[in-house]
Amino acid sequence: MPKAEDILNREIARVNLHLPADRPTLKQLLGEKEPRVRLRDGSYHHFRRSELEYLISLLDEGEEERLRIPIVLEISTLYRGYFRVRGRTEVKVIEKILGTYDILDEKIEGLYPRYLLPKIRKALPTTTTYAFITE
Fold this sequence. Notes:
The chain is of the alpha+beta class and 135 residues long. Helix content is 33%, strand content 21%.
């Protein structure tokens, strides 16, 4: 008989089938005729070119090679009421959209209240995605 933890982990994996199998860089996507990514369930997710160009406008030169798309907004069991973003360039983009970016305080990881999710998803509907994780 499976343990409750095993059942939960299987359900989380099932819920996360919408996540990409691989996260290409912004530079790679801008070089494609039809920017898209293959998802874990085998389907494809397409990105709006206008959104990719908006992202490049938020970055300094050369950062498009480090920004992985889609930006993952992690919903965790550990941080109730918050979501997390990992990656220096990814955090920079999110904080610029939220208007909280501080050039003197570049972070590798950011933790934000969940009520800010609609603002981010409105600005970046095709280049962000949710991941549900247990910790």
